């Protein structure tokens, strides 16, 4: 009994701890920024990343954990102002992230990274707008307090917090860097890009570029700021291409640190004297969100281009008799096998070489009852004989079915190696 209890805690509770710690760290950062009458909700990006990264079977525990974290992080507000109403608001805000992740699951094309990212962006904007309207209507009805003047400020902070923080977190989680990039040349180029990015950010945000423009260049107002910010994005994209996802996340953290620090000190390209107190930091968050989304799209598109030469070129066809669990393969490459060829003839052995995170879904794909008709598609990681993880797309369809057994015909297609997978922020959102 105790063994099962500890096994359950280790498998389901322990993975939540890093997310909760990260949530509290982002809450502290956001609180420090909000002390200046400017709204920043980076912890929303942590919650969003957790739901995108985690399999759906963990979502209930994640929801409970983040809801309790929201409540405990805001105990001072709850102690003085309508605790029941604020508790319901925190529950609604956490529920919005669940709805966004569900939208990605059900409305994006399965295993299509680009479709998933577009769906995530659109659902983030729309669902947060709907939830913000419902929350503000609820507060106005029950408390008779008009909060329309802060509606757009809080909504924008929520959306930009998600769109800017989530890609940074997911970039560190998706550390799939091709081995050919790990060499002295690329390490040196990456370090050089970081140094250039830090130097450029310091010159831009401390006002040096603006002074040079006034003294020498005499460009139209705002042009120098726009060009300098474009330079930061270019350097960030370069670092992302050299070091992959972690490089992009490092670049965004550098820009976020400089923009936040100097904007709060009332200097830099985002601080304009005619703006309201809360607007410069909001503009900085919008810039970070735009930069993050741009890098995501470029990473995914370049990954598709890099893999396009070999994608779908290697495939193996099979018949599976579910009653006996036996595979019958056609044109199965030797290097495709995770073991000697005869091991690939038993469904148990095949499942053994599928990644543990994908194994249950693959077993259900082949073994659970399903209706005859259109083909089923599933994607999983499979360990080859050489020890590398391959992304396999399985397309299968029932050929014959009777009360005792059925025959499934299908094929495996190699889309890429797992170490060179596209830079998706979607995590394991398609897993059950």
UniProtKB/TrEMBL annotation:
Q: Which parts pass through the membrane?
A: 6-26, 59-79, 85-104, 116-139, 159-177, 189-209, 215-235, 242-262, 282-301
Annotated MASE1 domain ranges read 39-302
Keyword Hydrolase among record annotations? no
Q: Which InterPro entries match?
A: MASE1, PAS-like_dom_sf, PAS_fold_3
Can you name this protein?
PAS domain-containing protein
- Please give the GO cellular component terms listed in this UniProt entry: plasma membrane
Identify the keywords attached in UniProt to this record, alphabetized.
Cell membrane, Membrane, Transmembrane, Transmembrane helix
Kindly report the protein's main subcellular placement as a broad class. membrane
The domain of life for this entry's organism is Bacteria
